[in-house]
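Subject: sequence -> structure tokens, single chain

Hey, anyone have a minute? Need the predicted structure for the following. Not urgent.
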Amino acid sequence: MSSLTKEGADKTVEAMEYGAVDFITKPSGSISLDIHTIESVIQSTVAEAAQANISVLSKQESSQNHHSSIMSAKPIQSDTPIVTIGASTGGPRALQQVLTSLPKSFPAPITIVQHMPPGFTKSLADRLNKLSSIHVKEAENGEKLEKGTAYIAPGGRQMEISQNGVELICHVTKKEPINGHEPSVDVLFRSVAQLKKCHPISVILTGMGSDGASGLLDLKKHHPRTIAMSQSEQSCVVYGMPQAAEKTGFIDYVLHLPEIGEALSQKIQTKR
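Reply:
Had a minute. Here:
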């Protein structure tokens, strides 16, 4: 259970890096006399944690142990590639492994929805930025997306992407939660689906529920050449979101977690 302070958020993100499955925000202050108001949240979070595959938290896998046909596939060539990633339970550790494996010169912007409440995504972005070669930050409304930068949607906001010529613009706004999620992977994916000129690569990482599956359908409908990846069941803390995405029939590659960063680097090449 964490307080909505910078110190509390930093400690929470650090705890998740070391193996905490999930967390619950305190309803008020440090004493939290009204803790009874989140009784159902505590019960559901504990129930979800009980189903988590905690064996994957005890080790960091090496990509040398896995091989996939994607490594031999021809890289895409596009003036406007964009990576979209969705994650929930177990996501902070998964994101760390993916982002820290990318080179500083990674030739595309990366947009990320990690299910987290307000006050925690900034700490997550700051921590990942310290560990990664690429730049990682919490997304801001109206900023232009840059190659080699990962943008994490702020908790309590929806993140969407628009296009001005070849420039991609980030929009962070207060909107209704979608299926209880704010930010929502579906919202991000659907906005990218509406872009006229881009080549998306979508990634669904570990998480409870099905967020991202519906948005993936939109991506594939409007951009049939979208490359869709999902995290393998064996490497997920919770297999819900990847499984839902795979059930759509539009996932191109099911990859173990250590393979994903390498696959992203291998697949994206800008036109020369």
